[in-house]
């Protein structure tokens, strides 16, 4: 029987994975990996562009999160 931990792991893993796949640049801006811009100069809202390599890494992590959530769901409910 599935417990709360398994169900929570499936839901959170799938949600994080889908968010990383759908909006990788937004997720990177919200994460701690990009780092804060301490010395802001210029107009409000001007940020450096996130390199394409980082977005592909975020998408890869999204695929991994969805795969792990699917594996946990398979192990729990099969």
Please, could you describe this protein's structure?
The longest helix is centred in the C-terminal third of the chain and has 26 residues, at 52-77. Helix 1 (4-22) runs antiparallel to helix 3 (52-77). The protein contains three helices and no strands. It has one domain. With 78 residues, it is mainly alpha-helical. It is 67% helix and 0% strand. The protein is elongated and about 55 Å long.
Per-chain topology:
Layout: H1 4-22, H2 24-30, H3 52-77
Helix pairs in contact: 1-2, 1-3, 2-3
Order of helices and strands: HHH
Category by helix and strand content:
mainly alpha
Distance between the termini: 10 Å
How does the major sheet shape up? none
- Number of continuous helical runs: 3
Estimate nothing, just give the exact number of structural domains.
1
Report mean pLDDT, rounded to a whole number. 85
Low-confidence stretches: none
Strand content: under 5%
């Amino acid at each position: 029987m599935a417990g709360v931990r398994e169900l929570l792991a499936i839901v959170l893993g799938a949600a994080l994975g889908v968010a990383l796949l759908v909006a990788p640049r937004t997720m990177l801006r919200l994460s701690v990996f990009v780092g804060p811009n301490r010395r802001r100069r210029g107009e409000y809202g001007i940020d450096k562009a996130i390199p394409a390599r980082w977005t592909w890494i975020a998408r890869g992590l999204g695929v991994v999160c969805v795969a792990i959530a699917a594996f946990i769901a398979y192990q729990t409910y099969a």
